[in-house]
Design brief:
Chain lengths: ~375, ~150
């Protein structure tokens, strides 16, 4: 690939930047969007950026969305660029997601899960009909919505966290035993993926994968290019308290909380070695923010990749190299976008070769 | 105040940063404040155990700010304070570290800092209460469904 320098490119690029900002501001009647509006009212979009950017910073994710005018891939790219400028101060101790302060918790495996099922905020049961009243929403009515919800809902005496559904299945001997070997997790931000990679590398890669890419891979498995057939043992959304050592006492203290989505799927049972008791197989998905489709897709792919790593892949979704190298939004968007860059020299070469080839095929006396 | 030291930062974080900084500045204006290290803002790698096999993996990164200070009063009494936050404001972490030292050393003005912690804890509990309300309002009641199932079966 070759590039050529052209006169006047800088002026055009500067003009393009100005034109882009003009497009954002062209309707002078509009108010500039506040970051808090993006963060709160487009919370699911913000969630995508924090997970695909790999950095839990909702405010900066909102800023990136504003700057890139809603382009999720560019916004995630900007968040990653930002993180690359910051020093890494620490690695947290292992955090236990069973301590998550749930705002939503469901299971499709059991009706009665310990602690109960709570739908929280979801569109799962919503009619997909446009709410035309939102088109010209009255600000006063808008402000009343949250107040009315809280005043109409009785205070509840619920625990801080809930037991995991998988714990009950494991206690019954229906699940594989927990791994005893705790190998160091793979850091995808520092080390390249050289296959075969450990499961921790696959989980980390999928946790910051682009939602649509992950869904497409998982969907191929669901439709028949695979055999996971998952049941969602538990899907939970909530705030994970981040426990870090107090700088003076050294004791663990809550340094803040992070919104995450987590999904555990139970899949077809199988026996390990001959004579072993058959047990269900498992898949796990998790990501920053509230993104259920991503967590479910990741859990399905985790299970598919476990099979592929063990027995060799029979389907694309079971192939670690195929899945993990193609689900990153920043990587794939970058490659697609680079085709917009000038390829004048390479294309000139292609044309030269084509003309030469045509010349060889051309019959004597025939003109182009 | 019966809020343990380890819970002070999470309570204080609920408050407006300007309020925390103002109180920390007021309480430390007559005492020597020495930074054990310069207040830092950067990132932390979030380690989780996966829910299926309890394997460790990294979910991603979080902003982290931390500070550690030593306060020395006019009569030579020294007390250490520290703070680490999921946040990117190093100055806020330093202010909370100062309040941590004031509270743990029961220095002059610690009652003001206590009030702040209690106010923050109230706000935190209110937020948790609101989340619980949302859960309670959306709790699924399967008992009716079971009855209907039984009737259908009949």
């Amino acid at each position: 690939m070759s590039y050529v320098a052209i006169k006047g490119g800088k002026a055009a690029i500067d003009g393009a930047a100005a034109a882009t900002d003009y497009m954002r501001c062209m309707n002078a009647v509009d108010e500039p969007i506040k970051l808090s509006v993006i963060e709160d009212q487009l919370r699911l979009l913000t969630s995508r950026i924090v997970s695909e950017g790999g950095l839990y910073h909702p405010k900066l994710a909102a800023l990136a969305l504003k700057q890139f005018q809603g382009d999720t891939l560019e916004a995630a790219f900007a968040l990653r660029a930002y993180r690359s400028t910051k020093p890494r101060l620490l690695e947290t101790p292992l955090q236990d997601t069973s301590k998550m302060r749930c705002i939503r918790r469901i299971s499709s495996a059991f009706k009665d899960i310990p602690g109960g099922q709570m739908l929280g905020a979801t569109f799962d049961y919503a009619l997909r009909l446009l709410r035309l009243d939102l088109a010209n929403e009255d600000p006063a009515a808008f402000r009343e919505v949250a107040k009315n919800f809280l005043s109409n809902t009785p205070e509840a005496d619920l625990p801080d966290s809930f037991p995991k559904v998988l714990d009950a299945l494991r206690a019954e001997g229906l699940l594989p035993p927990l791994g005893l070997m705790r190998e160091q997790a793979f850091d995808i931000t520092r080390d390249p993926l050289v296959f075969p990679v450990p499961r921790s590398a696959a989980l980390a890669t999928m946790a910051r994968a682009e939602t649509g890419s992950l869904l497409a891979m998982a969907y191929s498995n669901m439709r028949g290019y695979g055999d996971v057939h998952p049941t969602v043992a538990e899907l939970r959304v909530g705030y994970l308290p981040v426990m870090l050592p107090h700088p003076v006492t050294g004791e663990l203290m809550e340094a803040g909380e992070v919104l995450i989505t987590e999904c555990e799927v139970v899949a077809m049972y199988e026996s390990g070695n001959a004579g072993d008791m058959p047990v269900f197989t498992l898949g796990y998905g998790a990501c920053f923010g509230h993104n259920e489709v991503k967590a479910i897709s990741m859990a399905i792919l985790d299970r598919a990749l476990q099979k592929g790593m063990r027995d060799g892949p029979d389907n694309p979704s079971e192939d670690p190299e195929f899945v993990l190298l193609h689900v990153d939004g920043v990587d794939s968007m970058g490659f697609a976008s680079h085709y917009k860059m000038p390829h004048y020299v390479t294309f000139q070469s292609d044309m030269d070769r084509l003309r030469t080839t045509q010349g060889k095929v051309r019959k004597p006396g025939e003109t182009a | 105040m019966n809020i343990p030291r380890n819970d002070w930062p999470r309570a204080l974080c609920q408050l407006d940063a300007a309020e925390i900084k103002a109180v920390a500045a007021t309480l430390s204006c007559d005492i020597e404040v020495r930074d054990v290290f310069l207040p830092q803002a950067g990132l932390g790698l979030l380690s989780l155990t996966d829910g299926a096999f309890h394997d460790p993996f990294y979910l991603g990164e979080i902003p982290v700010a931390r500070a550690e200070v030593i306060l020395k009063t006019a009569d030579g009494y020294e007390v250490q304070g520290g703070c680490v936050l999921v946040d990117d404001r190093a100055k806020l972490a330093r202010s909370i570290a100062i309040l941590d030292a004031v509270l743990s050393g029961k220095l002059h003005g610690c009652n003001v800092a206590e009030n702040l912690v209690e106010k923050g804890e109230l706000m935190r509990m209110q937020k948790i209460g609101e989340r619980r309300q949302m859960l309670a309002a959306t709790r699924v009641d399967f008992s009716l469904l079971e009855q209907e199932d039984d009737e259908d079966a009949e």
